[in-house]
Amino acid sequence: MIRGACTAGASWLTPLADILAVEAEKAPKGKPAKSLILLWLGGAASQLDTFDPHPTTKIGGGVKGIDTAIKGVQFAAGLEQTASVMGDATLIRSMVSKEGDHERAFYYLKTGHRTDPTLIHPSVGAVICHELPEARLEIPTHVSILPNQWPARGGYFGAQFDAFQMLDPIGSIPDVKARVSDERMQKRMESLGVVEKAFATGRLPNFDPQKTLHQLSIERARKMMTSEQLKAFDVSQATAAQRNAYGDTPFGRGCLAAVRLIQTGVRCVEVTLNGWDTHANNLEGQASQVRILDAALASLIRDLKRYHLLESTVVVCGGEFGRTPKINKLGGRDHWPTGFSMLVAGGGFAKGRVVGATDPEGVKKDPQSPVLVEDLHATILDLFGIDFSKELITPVGRPMALSKGEVVEELLARRSV
Amino acid sequence: MDSSSPTSPALTWLRNAAVVTALAIIGGLAAWVWLQKPAPDQPPNVAIDVSGIVMRVNAAFEADWASKGIPAPTRADDLTILRRLSLALTGSIPSLEDIREVQAMQGDNVPERWLTRLLADRRTSDYLAERLARVYVGTENGPFLIYRRRRLVEWLSDSLLQNRPYDRIVRELIESKGVWTTNPAVNFITVTNESQKGPDEKKLAAKVSRAFLGVRIDCVECHDGKLGSPWKQSDFHQLAAYFGQTKFDFTGLRDDPKQHYQMRYLGETEPAVISAKVPWKPECMPDQGPPRSRLADWVTAKENKTFARTLVNRFWALLFNKPLIIPVDDLPLDGPFPPGMELLAEDFIAHDFNLHRLIRVITATRVFEASSVTDHPGAEAQWAAFPVTRLRPEQMAGSVIQAASLCSIGAEAPVIFRIKRDIDVRNFVKRYGDKGEDDFDNAGSTIPQRLLLMNGNMVTDHVKGNPLLSACTRIGMLSPDNRAAVESAYLAVFTRKPSAEESAHFEERLASAKSMSSRSIAMSDLYWTLMNATEFSWNH
């Protein structure tokens, strides 16, 4: 009965996913989160044209407001479906970054640290995969769907924690099918063993696991090639109704794949929707991306809830910064790293809450109740039960805390407001 | 006849004048074209004695290893050094044809003699030009109409082949004027015109400081430096101001003395005109001249040593796939410097920024010739073992294609091979993970890369049985015996001979293949195995 309920609409589930689904439904409330889904609005979505519109003011820029499931809170028109699921999510309207350049800002948002020439920090997904390994998984535990130039990286944890990158999940993973028979492949692998032995002669014993990761990657790739769990990547196996619910766009399919991967036991998935960098024609540019985002984001939250995964899955949606209240001569909005919006849901985040506010006239730069990027990271890691203040020795010999931020209690379900 | 006589002197004069004028124009044009040809200031392809500087660099590293208690490295064999040279200079492993030629060379100094060949090879200048172009202008095609990346790469390739002094190359990049099609160096500046507002002074200042001076001064674009950084916001914008007069019009790129660079500093309410000023060594800056020419003088001044160090670090990185100072474009102005850096920079300056000489010096050092095999955990970090690094995507693609052909594939190969190669390279490189930068991040293998090598079209197509085109099939057919077939395959893919154990293993596999088709399959599997090994995907 339990199993039937939790796997409704997901008849493709693999044995591990079945086990996880049952565990998810039985899990008591308040347990640490297990999975993370990051939806990146690459190029920087405009808070004024998405989650923080000021339609009746000078800075509104022609946007129309719609009511949401949270009383008195409006979204930009076009986000009707997301507005309806806000009872399960929290909106931060006061994100504050210190970077206004896309690359540096993405680094900051993804790692919780600003760039440092001496080392590369791991993305938050890599930190979680590093701290919470999942041995039963045969497919990568960290996945980046439709990545832009800056996919999630393992940083100083090593490339084995880099996100596995994939494009539109409409078909199977490229090159995942062997081109020869099992018997012939077996012979090839035996020969490879002979060749690898020769190359390893005289070298350090940890040469492969700590340096090249070559044989480790081959081993993982081969495990994946024959795994039933591969089905999670391929949304062409989902029903047309499911795909349509997400909008059946590459991003929508990416979000559907993210849910399927989380069901299968994948620890962290990021999905990227680019096209928000509207230095010209902001209103139309943002509206066209909002249409893609709305169905996908709302369906993702609905499905996680339906499969009893929302309690154990943290969802974060936002761009690398926001966009200026002032509209430029080309009808565009430029970069704005203070007072931008992020939507968070699941995994212990509060429900139906709004944190922070921006000046409706766009005059005051600093928002109320600012949430710093590093504080958001500390809060996410805390939800996973990870001691983020723990210092690790990085390869350059420098001790480094996983996050230098502090937990923002206001964002959490355990804190009543 | 008479009727024509009154006018014939005039006509004759006119005709002669026209001919003389035409000849003068043609002659002038010819002279102009001849003068435009860059004169090769340094002999491009002559083996030169670099033993003195090589000994000094070796001594510096040896002293460093001794002080750290790290054993000095053993020398790698000639074929391994040949593989390193080919990968660094041509972007692919050597062909079986190349290897046979090297094996036939008599006497000592085989790598040095091979290097002489490579430095005169268009494959080398093309590949190095592409790598440098990534540093100077990136990989994108850039602003439409006013940017021709291909022309810039061709010009760089010509310059490298002719061994033009590096300071002259950089000078042209900074101060060139005119049209981007006929004056290729101009593209260094036109690529920054992304917003159609003219050259982007800030991008140019960042590029000049990082690419030529090894300083990341662009970090202070928005505010003064923090965490002990010596730079102020004004240092960056005063450097950018040297490009403040540069503009585009119908004559191409030019400088307009009436135009100025303006900027609003942090904390100020209004933008102000920024005066051009260099952040260090002002004594190297000439008093007179157009701003970009003065900047070029200062950047390339012999006293401005960071210019030479930055190039030494870049070429060291190109040759080892790992910079001497990490990151490659962030060097301390006043040290401390690792062993070898000051000696190499001083030699580079003393020999008028001779790039071919620098390549000869670096590749003749004990460090470049060191074996990568070590069981000492600290050896590689201290350059007491050749660093084992992952091949770049284009090196992987080039090597798969080269290994699958018995002859050298390069500029002189039939056009069909070049087109095919370019398409293959483009597809493969994208999938293997090209970041579009000339980076040296030293990452490990990834699952998508292994899937691509194991099951992707490129390796599958290049190792399948084909008696006309496939190297593995031809080796299987033409070799006198199984041992020779295995050895040729190893040379073609690994640039080395097999060990006794490896040879025995594959000989047995070939011996068990009784038919032509099963032998072709066994050869195909041998090639597949070698191409999927660590040894193939890594520089060592």
How would you characterize this protein structure?
The complex is a heterodimer of chains A (417) and B (540). With 417 residues, chain A is an alpha/beta fold. Chain A has one domain: 3-Layer(aba) Sandwich (Alkaline Phosphatase, subunit A). Helix content of chain A is 32%, strand content 15%. Chain A is built from 12 helices and 15 strands. Chain A has helices at 2-6, 15-26, 80-84, 102-111, 124-131, 182-200, 207-212, 214-225, 240-245, 250-264, 282-306, 373-383, and strands at 35-41, 65-67, 74-76, 89-96, 142-145, 164-166, 268-273, 313-318, 322-323, 335-336, 338-345, 353-355, 371-372, 391-393, 399-401. In chain A, the strands form 4 sheets. In chain A, strands 1, 4, 5, 6, 7, 8, 11, 12 and 13 form a 9-stranded mixed sheet that branches. With 540 residues, chain B is mainly α. Chain B has 3 domains: 51-122 and 304-385, no CATH class; 123-300, no CATH class; 390-539, no CATH class. Helices cover 53% and strands 3% of the residues of chain B. Chain B has 24 helices and 6 strands. Chain B has a two-stranded antiparallel ribbon with strand order 1-2. A two-stranded antiparallel ribbon of chain B has the order 3-4. In chain B, strands 5-6 form a two-stranded antiparallel sheet. Chain B is globular and about 85 Å long. Mean pLDDT of chain B is 87; it is low at 1-7 and 30-41. Classes of the chains: A alpha/beta (417), B mainly alpha (540). Chains A and B meet through helix 6, helix 7 and helix 8 of A and helix 18, helix 22, helix 23 and helix 24 of B.
Beta fraction of chain A: 15-25%
Number of distinct helices of chain A: 12
Q: Can you give the mean pLDDT of chain B?
A: 87
Gross morphology of chain A: globular
Rounded mean pLDDT score of chain A: 91
What gyration radius of chain A follows from the Cα positions, in whole Å? 22 Å
The CATH homologous superfamily of chain A corresponds to: Alkaline Phosphatase, subunit A
Global shape of chain B? globular
Alpha carbon gyration radius of chain B: 28 Å
Main pleated sheet of chain B: 2 strands, antiparallel
The strand line-up of the biggest sheet of chain B is: 1-2
